[in-house]
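Good morning C.,

I know you're traveling, so I'll keep this short. The sequence:
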Amino acid sequence: MTNDNKVLEVSNLHMSYDGQAIIEGLTFSMAQRDILIVLGPNGAGKTTLLRGLLNLLPYQGSVIWHARKIGYLPPQESLQRQGLPPLQLAEFFHFKTHDTGSIKAMLSDVGLDDSFLSRQFNELSTGQFQRMMIAWSLLDNPDVLILDEPTSGIDIGGEETIYSLLHKFWQKQNLTMLLVTHDLHVVWEYATQVLCLNRQQMCMGKPDEVLTLEQLKQLYGTGIKFYQHRHG
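The tokens, ready to paste straight into the viewer:
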């Protein structure tokens, strides 16, 4: 990496849809090995931001990546599993590699055994499908993994499993992560940096330093429950 280990530099980012401003004047950076979590209410522009950073939507401003390879895991609802072709997982993974040993090892790392290779998408539970997609995203060793609501539609026990799984990969590989979530406990548990977004940048920094009760009320409105997790 170059430029003092910065992986991503965003400057004066503006994005709009149908003439309506969605993101205005956003500036932030992300360093190697960061786990940057983007927080904000519905309609704040979080998914729009991720898609702009991936050059999937037009934007004004500057987005500079210092990364060799970027993996992206979109939100579950956008994958429309029921509309996917009747592929077995083995066929799906062969789009990336024919190294069956690597595929089996990666599936094992996410808690899926070899028998899943003969299953089709619609035979997987929501949690199994998300584990499979994490394996797919990490199979070619990206520098950066971008995730949009990675536990959407998964029960609370499954949420914990998915986040602990992602954290395991972060520890094991030289991985930088950028993710959107609504789960504040995940921020306290895993984030090294947090970006508070509601069309404009509301805060940016280490969770312990920027996520005050007043900041959360400003971001989400009144009625926010404030619980700060600390490791014992």
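Safe travels,
E.
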